Amino acid sequence: MKADFSILCDFVAAHGNESPDALLLGRSKWPDIDIDAAVNTLRGRERLHRKVPDWAGNQSLVFPTDLCTQQCSSAETAGFKVALAKSILKGKSAGEARLADLTGGLGVDAFAFASNFGKVLYNEADERLAAAAQWNFSHLGAGNITISNRFVESGNLQEILGGFKPDILFLDPARRAVDGRKVFMLEDCSPDILSIKDELLSLSQAVMVKLSPMADISRVVGQLGDCVSLVCTVACGGECKELLLVLEAGHSGPASLCIYEDGTVIRRPSCKDGGDIKLFSTPAEFESSCGALIFEPGKALLKSGLFNAPCSEGYVKLAGSTHLYICRGSSGLPGKYFRIKEIRPMSSKGLKAISKTGISAEVSTHNLPIKAEDLKKRLRASSSPSEHIFACKVEFVSAPSGNYLIFASREA
Q1: 274 in any annotated domain
Q2: Most CB within 10 Å of its CB: which of 3, 21, 164, 242?
Q3: At which of 43, 69, 95 does a domain end?
């Protein structure tokens, strides 16, 4: 297999400037080359330039399937998982600890763990990926990773581990059905964490599970029960990428929450309690907010479901289902901040007047029965990277709710 990968790398180096489609069409010219793997390697390198640049620039690495580079962790999210794993270690330093990645995939997470932990076991059911991982790890200088090629199922976890005694187990269940559909419920993923949960917890003090960002937090925590000690929502680049759960045997009580977005980490004692909502008392109080900031939460905070959490930082929420907040100064919550220039009640007459001004701004709608693109057309607004119009419903403590337009400029 190593010799095959060596030939594959030589072929990719010689044909790297050619069109992948042309290589696929001309596969008969190279009967001894796995053209699909060569094309997947070329496309994978391009894809990894943004996600894992160190891997993309290493010409000795191979990526035999297209899906492996599509679904792999980024360097940033892998780094967060390392920090999270270190934080849940008990009684050992990372350099002494052992971690087993039971669903290794391309190996980005396993390599990040190996760069920080004493020993790592990488297991992957797909023989092609396991062989590629062994090749890639050797060319990345990771000498502390043991390779296993077994399918994870109830009753065989101890066989996969052999004599390897992990302090932490990590799993990223496959989120593809047999027919190729994307799935995100625990019972539809492979392996089924629900069926092997007790076995996992009998083999390690802690289990980290990566789930789809589409998974329902309340549902999965309810399914897994009291062993869930921590829930993490992970976002970067304006997109929620992962949901991570930490399971610990003997844990009881509510799970705590960790929110990660673009380097900012926020911890909360519970993943269920978002605190009390804080609203403006009257329209006059709200309309006096010119010069203040409007806060649009990041994707990780929104995924957490703690929509009232910013109110505990002194922010005022615009409405129960309008997830926008007004604050006098940023407290560092992850998201976007805009400086409010003007606030107007939203009316047909007002929209018509704005449409005649030739305004330049991005437009978003919040808790209103109109789509942003439709409102933008109605306003005849051209795009602007720095200006924004928020159309939203605002609720008040001592007055009926109203619909408003908030004109704001993006803060650096």
Answers
A1: no
A2: 242
A3: 69
Within-domain flag for 273: no
Residue 314 has pLDDT above 50, yes or no: yes
The DSSP string of 295-319 is EEE-HHHHHHT-TTGGGGGT-EEEE
Residue 123 and residue 140 in one domain: yes
Kindly tell me if the per-residue pLDDT of 1 is higher than 60.
no
State the total domains in the chain: 3
Element (H, E) at 244: strand 239-247
* Complete DSSP assignment for 372-393: HHHHHHHHTPBP-SSEEEEEEE
87 with 60, same domain?
Answer: no
pLDDT at 185: 81
pLDDT at 282: 97
Q: What is the pTM of this model?
A: 0.90
Q: Are 320 and 278 in contact (CB under 8 A)?
A: no
Range of the domain at 258: 76-268
Classify residue 112 by burial, with Cβ atoms within 10 Å: 0-12, 13-18, 19+.
Answer: buried
Residues 335 and 211 in one domain: no
Q: Once rounded to an integer, what is the mean pLDDT over residues 250-260?
A: 91
**Cα–Cα dist 161/149, whole Å:** 11
Q: From residue 174, how far is each of 156, 193, 244, 250 by CA, in Å?
A: 18, 11, 14, 27
What pLDDT shows up at residue 3?
54
pLDDT, mean of residues 38-66 = 95
